[in-house]
Specification:
Largest sheet: 2 strands, antiparallel
Number of strands: 4
Strand order of the largest sheet: 1-4
Number of helices: 18
Structural class: mainly alpha
Strand content: under 5%
Helix content: 40-55%
Distance between the termini: 45 Å
Order of helices and strands: HHHHHEHHEEHHEHHHHHHHHH
């Protein structure tokens, strides 16, 4: 009898950012409230750059979706990022205004550094599709297929796929391309792709492509504004929630600016959750936008739950990994962490391990701030920010205990608030969407 023995590799650690799938409802909700914009489509200029690039390559004779087109496209995609970083390096304002969220920035870091050191970059060094050294993106069309193709198709800017080819649409993609073309040196850009070598001098000559220069391209800005706000010619059923969300954000930005405060993620999270400004005062909003704010409030409730749940997950797994114990299942790990590890002794004054959930919820009235006072230390919004900060700090037993305390405060507050009792409210998910 023949016996074949093979070595079994140990299981690899799971990657990803949402092991518990607690962020999935958030993604579903914001996809409905802000269609055509996602958490990885941060730069508006890519909405016009990609149709422009396809059109510009077509004008230069790249008429077929073949290897020649793909290689030129990949060089151009990375070139756009190099331009942004070079312009950031010679500008006096914030780096993020130029190069923030430009696709492939991390993988292109060595080439960006080479340019800053006075060297030249051969575009095929990063744009090739071989395995060694690692190209800036494995996906065929780089940043387009990695991040933007779905939303550009959703907005009818592009059509097609990475297998058969992508095209700009005549109705929206072509006008956007032509609008961008008015403000950029197309021939020099194509010439740079074909010559295949860039230096700081050449990138400086191409600075009109930097995302910051969008503000100087009036026709391009106006068309993007009309498209994203669903104005006449671009209106449809899906544009309405995006239009209302963008109006709501502009309203919040104006209100915060009147108090000399920025519209940042922290202020957005708190204001959208509690319907109140950082000082606890009501956020004034047009009545037709209040339902949109309420829906985003549901989004933020789930986000708080997500942060708290993942904080607990992080603390338990971190302690278990540090212990070197081998336990039979998740229940055994949780039981060890709560009752045997001793790590929670520092917080039992506030949260006894023997107390039942109803008692803990009832006890919230002793410490829970008003719903609108989201800037206060023990408010669930502030506690969620605390979890995020603690998870980035050096690991220790005291750090983990603080994470657990903050996570419990968030979860108990969500359970105790009458304002959050409606759960997901009017938002309906597909059948079995929330089933574990």
């Amino acid at each position: 009898m023949d016996v074949t023995t093979a070595w079994v590799k140990p299981p690899r650690q799971i990657g990803g950012l949402d092991h518990l799938a607690v962020q999935a409802p958030c993604i579903n909700i914001y996809g409905r409230l802000l269609p055509g914009i996602t958490n990885v489509t941060d730069r508006a200029r890519y909405y016009s750059f990609y149709p422009w690039l396809i059109w510009a390559l077509e004008q230069a004779g790249y008429n077929n979706f073949d290897d020649r087109f793909i290689d030129a496209f990949r060089k151009a995609d990375g070139l756009f990022t190099l331009i942004a970083h070079q312009h950031a390096s010679i500008s006096s304002d914030a780096h993020e205004k130029h190069a923030g969220a430009t696709v492939g920035s991390a993988n292109l870091a060595p080439y960006i550094a080479a340019i800053r050191a006075g060297g030249e970059v051969v575009l095929t060094d990063y744009a090739h599709r071989g395995k060694q050294p690692q190209p800036y993106f494995q996906s065929k069309l780089g940043g387009l297929s990695q991040y933007y193709l779905g939303v550009l198709a959703e907005l009818s800017i592009l059509d097609g796929n990475t297998k058969d080819g992508v095209r700009y649409t005549r109705e929206i993609g072509l006008p956007l391309a032509l609008a961008m073309d008015k403000g950029v040196p197309r021939e020099l850009f194509i010439q740079t792709i074909e010559s295949g070598v860039v230096s700081a001098v050449r990138l400086d000559a191409l600075k009109a492509f930097c995302p910051c220069q969008l503000r100087h391209s009036a026709a391009e800005v106006e068309m993007l504004r009309q498209l994203l706000f669903g104005e006449p010619g671009f209106e449809n059923a899906e544009a309405e929630p995006r239009y209302r969300t963008l109006r709501m954000l502009l309203s919040l930005g104006d209100t915060l600016a009147s108090q000399s405060l920025p519209l940042d993620t922290s202020h957005f999270r708190g204001s959208i959750y509690a319907g109140a400004l950082p000082d606890g005062q009501a956020w004034p909003l047009d009545s037709d936008l209040e339902p949109t704010r309420d829906l985003w409030g549901i989004y933020q409730r789930n986000e708080l739950l997500s942060v708290a749940t993942q904080g607990l997950f992080f603390a338990v797994l971190d302690a278990y990994q540090e212990s070197s114990l081998v336990l039979e299942n998740g229940a055994a790990v949780a039981n060890w962490f709560v009752y045997e590890s001793g790590e929670l002794s520092a917080i039992t004054e506030h949260f006894s391990t023997e107390a039942d959930v109803p008692s803990l919820i009832e006890g919230c009235q002793n410490w829970l701030p008003d719903y609108s006072a989201w800037g206060e230390e023990l408010h669930e919004v502030a506690q969620a920010e605390r979890i995020i900060a603690l998870c980035k700090q050096r690991k220790s037993a005291s750090n983990r205990a603080e994470i657990v305390e903050a996570a419990l405060r968030v979860i108990l507050a969500l359970a105790a608030r009458t304002e959050t009792a409606a759960g997901y409210g009017s938002i309906l998910f597909p059948a079995n969407y929330l089933t574990a």
